[in-house]
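Quick one: co-fold with NAP.
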Amino acid sequence: MAAQLLEGGPVAEAVSDETRMRVGALRAHGVVPGLGTILVGDDPASAGYVRRKHETCEHVGLASFNIEIPANAGQQALVEAVDAFNRDPEVHGYIIQHPVPDGFDFNQALARMDPAKDADGLHPTNLGKLVLQEPGPVPCTPAGIQTMLGHYGIDTAGRNVVVVGRGPTLGRPMALLLSNRGPGADAAVTVVHSRVPDLDDYTRRADILIGAVGIPNFITPDMVKSGAVVVSGGITWEGRKLLPDVDESVGEVASWITPRLGGVGPTTVAMLLRNTVAAAEHRIG
Ligand code: NAP
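Sure, here it is.
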């Protein structure tokens, strides 16, 4: 079987088209929605992600602002950047690009953010809203994956979803999102991680299998049920090469699979801009 591709580009375009219309409505009210980014250190992958976010802002009509902090500047510099964006009326939503280098406390900075400006949906208040199923920004990569499944007509209701990885940005919120009530959710979700023996026993039962690990080619065909939908959320950079969690050969057994390039990534950025525009709309009431 050759799996069909879960291309992120068309999903991101559809989301961005809607965001662009909402930006137009805000601009008609004299509001230019603005996204801020805080980039700590000089990791080339992080710098690339931030650059891409700014380019997409320009493409969709948002203003964007960047604060760069040297890797040796210390936590106080990060705190000051957070305070500056919290105060800045032109910034409706912002992110701290993660991971941050050693010597910085990401969680402490995150907790200091104004939750109303948390474009990544990772502030404890917003993760709490996700648990309570209250409206708020949803973490971008899980939201992108959920939107992608919907875009390609893949139903999640009552289906057996296995998420490999329980990290705070991807695996854990992914499981919350898909096990919530409502359209695009209602799944039976199992989360597995490095302390689970015989991982394959779980993954082979999945109708929808989501890699959220960050180990290249971690998911191999023998771990996948024939006809399953397989999504690589986890990615690793090896030099300039992007390696997903899911080995390309899984395409022989899966019904749908994310491509090595242009899978989940573009949808993540689209969700970030959508969260920022929603924050701007919320502020004007
Ligand atoms: P994380 O906090 O490091 O989580 C990684 C998870 O993988 C942990 O739960 C870990 O288990 C699990 N794991 C590690 N080795 C394993 C093994 N041998 N068997 C089973 N599970 C194992 O990372 P994260 O922040 O959630 O991000 C996960 C991945 O998503 C990363 O690759 C990141 O780059 C990617 N990501 C992608 C996007 C995108 O736009 N596509 C956005 C955000 C993140 P333990 O908890 O037991 O250690």
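If it helps, The pocket of NAP is lined by residues 141, 164-167, 169-171, 193-195, 199, 212-215, 233-236, 264-265, 268 (CB under 6 Å).
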